[in-house]
What does this fold into?
Amino acid sequence: MARRAERLALPVGVVATFAILLVVFYYPVGSVLVAAVVRGGRLTLGPLADVLGDPFYTGMLAGTVRDPFGVPAGLGGWVRAGFPSVEFGLFGFTAWQAALSTVASVLVGLPGAYLLARYEFVGRRTLRSLTIVPFVLPSIMVAVGFLAMFGRNGLLNDLLSIVGLGPVGGVLFTLKAVVLAHAFYNAPLVTRLVTTAWESVDARRVESARSLGASRLRAFRDVVLPELVPAVLTAALLTFVFTFLSFPIVLALGGLQLATVEVWLYARVQDLALGEAATLGTIETVLSLSLTYLYLRYEARQVRSRGTTTLSRHRLSIGWRTLRDPVRVGLFAYGIVVVILFVGPLASMVVESLTGSGGLTTANYAFLARQQAATAVGTIRPLPAVRNSLLFGLGTLLLAVPMGVVVSVLAARGGRGSRIAETLMSAPLAVSGVVVGLGMLQTLVFGTTVAGHRLVASGPVAIVLAHAVAAYPFVSRNVTPALSGIDSRLLDSARSLGASRLRVLVDVELPLVAAAVLAGAAFAFAISIGEFDSTVLLSQGVNTYTMPVALERYIGNRSVGPSLGPATAMGTVLLLVTAASFLVIDRLGGRWQP
Amino acid sequence: MAAVSERGPADTNPTGVELDDVTVRFGDVAALRDVSLAVEDGEFFTLVGPSGCGKTTTLRAIAGFETPATGAVRIGGREMGGVPPEDRNVGVVFQNYALFPHLSVRENVGYGLRFHDPPGEVTTRERVDDLLSLVDMADMAERDPDALSGGQQQRVALARALAPGPDVLLLDEPLSALDARLRERLRVTLKAIQRDLEITTIYVTHDQAEALAVSDRVAVVNDGRIEQVDTPERVYREPASRFVAEFVGDNNRFEAEITGTDPPRASVDGLDVTLPNASDVSAGRPVTLCVRPEAIRVTDGDVGSSGAAATTMTATVESREFLGDAYRLHCRWNDRSVLVKTGGRRPPEGTVRLAFDTDDVQVLTDE
Amino acid sequence: MAAVSERGPADTNPTGVELDDVTVRFGDVAALRDVSLAVEDGEFFTLVGPSGCGKTTTLRAIAGFETPATGAVRIGGREMGGVPPEDRNVGVVFQNYALFPHLSVRENVGYGLRFHDPPGEVTTRERVDDLLSLVDMADMAERDPDALSGGQQQRVALARALAPGPDVLLLDEPLSALDARLRERLRVTLKAIQRDLEITTIYVTHDQAEALAVSDRVAVVNDGRIEQVDTPERVYREPASRFVAEFVGDNNRFEAEITGTDPPRASVDGLDVTLPNASDVSAGRPVTLCVRPEAIRVTDGDVGSSGAAATTMTATVESREFLGDAYRLHCRWNDRSVLVKTGGRRPPEGTVRLAFDTDDVQVLTDE
Amino acid sequence: TSGDGSTNGSDSNGSATGGAGREGNTTGNTTATVGSAKTGGTLTVATYASFTGEDTAGAWLKSAFEKRHSNATVEFQVPENGVNQFVQRAQQGAPIDADLYVGLNTSELVRVRRQLDSPLFRSSGTVDGTDAIKQTLDVDPRGRAIPYDTGYITLVYDGTKVDEPRSFDALTKPRYANELITENAQQSDPGRAFLLWTVLAKGEDGYLDYWRDLLDNGVRVLADWEPAYQAFTDGEAPMVVSYSTDQVYYHDSKAQLRRHQVGFLDGQGYANPEAMAAFADAENPDLAREFMSFVLTDRAQSEIAVRNVQFPAVKGVSPGREFEKYAKEPPNPVTMSYDDLAGSVGGWVEDWSRLVASS
Ligand SMILES: Nc1ncnc2c1ncn2[C@@H]1O[C@H](COP(=O)(O)OP(=O)(O)OP(=O)(O)O)[C@@H](O)[C@H]1O
Ligand SMILES: Nc1ncnc2c1ncn2[C@@H]1O[C@H](COP(=O)(O)OP(=O)(O)OP(=O)(O)O)[C@@H](O)[C@H]1O
Ligand SMILES: [Mg+2]
Ligand SMILES: [Mg+2]
It folds into this structure.
């Protein structure tokens, strides 16, 4: 009986995962995107062609859509004109800023991975846990932090003037600010994914390379790097997709001058021009899914085999010699960058929450206390928001981890066609948040008529399901590479000893990739904590609001004046609760962690 | 200790293993081609063969890790198609140990007992302790596999496979990383356990002395095919093919021509060699004569004790290897290299006379 | 083939390896304790010892992967403290192969040539091809390591270590996964390469026949310490300790008491044994007598050819193992087990008389 | 996707809840007799988030209304995407489970009309108090939506950094280069109001040229009022498009007042009235009508004004001395009527946003 159940567990898990996806993702999103190709009940590619053929959207490429046969002539003209600079329209710009953001995130994130994976120092584990914190911060709070840190009168300029360097103005409202903010969100992603990969590199292989004459650096390049590249590319892919779909942070720090496609998509939804919104959403989705597919194809071709012996860490501090070691000095410099880019905005937000127009104040926290004590209906209280956030986070973690693992098992041991399945299963990463929100509204909140009954989904269960769907790809992105690196003989051994496929997974595979599962779990929790769109849609009544929802409500509240003070106070609460949660998650789950 | 015995097929075959025309492919490579084998219940069966010939693949097919492209695997008479590995009750020791790195030595050994009751009236803990002492690892029970030497890991892998009391034990070079002393001890233990518990055991080793010493029967595998299945003595003394003759043990091979049939005799480079009476030869046929190095005596001058029956030749010793209990001499005779194994304290040097008996000549007719 | 030679210390020692009081610790475990060794330039030096005794650790300390807690490692007379592995020009074959999984077989072998010119006047490609043919892997050059059998992987690892023409070659059981035939071929090749290029080679093997056959000198390691360093013949015939006597080759051990000194003689359970003249013994001392199994003759009744010099005993054969070229008999005499190795076609059974010569008795005085 | 917590929907950004200025609750007419207490039941009011909760206009209205109508209960509903939610429900045939919507603006009424064939809101019929509504605020020619307060969009500038920009044309002068922050008209109320105001000021044919000049002069178009105002507060630029009630928050300190000056361009301010309307499908239309009447009472008007920091929609209501002193009304309020916007607003915003994004 039990064995039977064990044998069925994985297939059932697959079916359940797919069912959840169907209900809270594919169906809602499909119901929106279908409008891109269906007009008046008939299939048409007209709207797609209109957008692609509009120079505003696609710049130079618009011509190729409208008149494919004119391309050679056009190219010729371009060559004759001496290669003038080419505009690629809104899509082009969106991709360009995403590419820049990706590069920046990787550049900022990689040294962090090196530090965390290869050096031992006091607080390493804590630091590793906290890397995920930026991930949960609402963009308005990041905007506040960036303004206070990098603004004309920001902390950075204050500090620079102290050391006698002139103010660096003009960062804000430029592409630089947007790219930096994207790095703020995504560099930690790079760091986390790469650290996990780095920690599973086989030490013996590195030693082989060294004994064959490779210097430390060469051995890194030839043996370690190939094992890191997939992780770096995963992180880069995710960053690119996220920043391609980025929207509020772009407007808040860059302005409409730097608008992305998502800004347009949102405006269309606001205007209830849902057909056009669907068209934009479809193009975005096709682009990001194609990229995902190509990446997964690449990833599957990488051979990865995890060694039994892992690299040992260096001590970060080696006494006075620390200051003479260029690598360690470099890491120190990197530490300064991290403090400026990450700690700066976060600390600025906290400082903001403690200042008012007349200097230091606790008014913002008094505001929180007042909300907590309030009696009026519709009041958003901070503590229930904290509680709900934590509960949903936990629920999401409990649901998203199994879902992600199931998908990873399919992906790691799957055969033909599993790349396409994996791509489709990764779609929650690649579809515009606005589209997902709209889809949920139209199908789950409004309800769907099934056999004469109108089924409406909302409330805590729906929220957790929605969060889990948004979060599980992070679990599987972390776990898949780790799983496929496990020596298959270990699995064979376990099975020959009598373990069913499920037990092998539980007893052998998951413990071996515990670090990756944990990383995924932390992401799942973070996604849930930071999630806003679907939470607010699916919150019916006042009992299911979360910290970001509360924060957003306090933004509009001016009882402490027309400032973001109350929101920053809530942001600080969010920050602290999140940080504490991650420390706990990592400590509880970190027993197997290297 | 292992006595060689020729087992007849058992009437009941509760845990015998049969392969029926099994072919296993990796992409284009056929690692096994139409392999048929019948391992009796309780038999100690050994696979030998060159590296890459398909030994590991055979074990993996039996354990259920490879699905044969064609053919069937049966355990205890039951067709195994579709039976997952965990339901075959097969213990496996892998060539690379494959210990669970996240479990201690004790937990590794105890792992299979999560799914099976320990055999006999003992607790899991007792069973694990017993097995750990058996492989001499009792004092390292709490270590992680990472902190073990290669041989120690191999011993743990062995204990782990034995713990649940499998019906069939598949051992892929389980002792290859051990020193001779320990290897022998474990081999004896293994054999004793195997005989006590009547576990059908299929053993892969590249150590031929071990294969011959320990096995009830030996299968010689070459390039994905079975060349011969027989008792150790028969495989050694009556090789079915030139490959077997060459592969199992040292051998000297002489191309020869039959010059007479009654008594059968042949000529090697003009040297007249009397063949054993039973030889099935016809005149003029090219044959290969094999003489084991230990069957060749070094006789400083005279023909040797066996008198007229012996063939003799004059050769020069080119080099020698010390083997402990003997020397292996590389001699040259008529531009041919002749291998001789001889005991004694001082190995002969320079020009020597070599002699071998008629009975020690194996005749292989070319296929 | 490898001739045994006793090499004296070379005047110049450009690639000799010396260990000076080296201790290596893993946490609390001392894997090596005060090990001192001097391996001569161009020597083929072998480490043998039980599993877990510290052989791998010794190699790792030489290659620079373990930092000795105390003591010094020198290569070519140069102190290696602080010299990174890549600057030691040492080729290593690891026990677990450690092939680069993302590189093909060819790329694995060619890897070291990215940093060194291939020795001789050949291109990298030629060098790789040569080495691949050397290890019989030429037709698998484009495969990924994942798709190789254990032995095939090991061969690739060997070729990879040889490719850059290292000064010192450290081989950790490089042939353990290979069949006897291939192992011998590679061993001969290895030895030839080693002698041609004068590569100082330190070899770890658990195969003692191999260790004895191939090595210039052998070090017997036990529990992190060196027990004896000597030529193979000396290690086999004149073991420095009881451990060595037991560990290298089969042996029979008899506790005995000295009963006379001129000529020296001892008594084992009442049996009078004449000892070799050179024995350094004093009356009444307990000693251990060792007699190799191959030194014991089975003489169906009479005392044997060597006449009066021999000691004889009557024993029963309890079991026997077929070794191909001989049988190993487990006999019982006076409640002691006696191991005998004997050739021939039909092994003796039942009650037998055993005899050995005075010269074949080794006397170990208890430390 | 990550961290985009502020992707909120159509928040009525300008409108704010507020306890500030509470002390100025000198109530006008406390003895208004509004309707009778006969109608009862539950009134479901859909509105925007900051209209409800502790210390808000909504909370006050609820308790005051319930006190007056002892058998009536007011329940608030806060759909995240505002009135769009009901348009979409109507389009999809999903039930509309509210009686009244509070917080409509003119653009939204246009959108509702454009999207739906059958009306979403019912004609308000006779609602007591409508006669007293200021003429300029008449948002709905069909008489469905009734305005209850208004804000004036204007410039707020830091008097310590710049002189008052008195006209639209001044803003394109080098003197004000890189000194103005406004909001994205696609999604922000004040941003859209400012855009419409420029259309009024420069004409349908001239406003894009004017914006081109503005852009050349370094205007920044941020997402919403909050980041824009935050940037202004942090000193990124000394001028921001905001509300004329701004000084209400800063009258405690002279220094702060100087940093928050209200500048009416060309003596104008763009009125952005908020309106309420009963749903066509309302279950309790009578109660809805009574609620609307109640909202228009002097007492309610001044409470809403103070709590929302917006001007009353009804003539002659005085929300208190402090409010009147610091909340500035433009000499010439302007706004676009429903008819002005119908059919045009979408194109204006689209052309404008393409212009900005391509710059
Ligand atoms: N990383 C480690 N941590 C702790 N102990 C270790 C570690 N590596 C090896 N040891 C211990 O050090 C001792 C020597 O190990 P080593 O690997 O050198 O043995 P070996 O002689 O190579 O054995 P084998 O023939 O089994 O490979 C062993 O007892 C082993 O358990
Ligand atoms: N995954 C694989 N993909 C392709 N070929 C493979 C794979 N695994 C094994 N082979 C090939 O199949 C053949 C048989 O392999 P197998 O591992 O059974 O050999 P073996 O007899 O165990 O050799 P060894 O003694 O060297 O371990 C070899 O030629 C090997 O290269
Ligand atoms: Mg194998
Ligand atoms: Mg070892």
Remarks:
- Chains C and D do not touch (no CB pair under 8 Å).
- The domain at 15-245 of chain C is CATH 3.40.50.300 (Rossmann fold).
- DSSP finds eight helices and 20 strands in chain C.
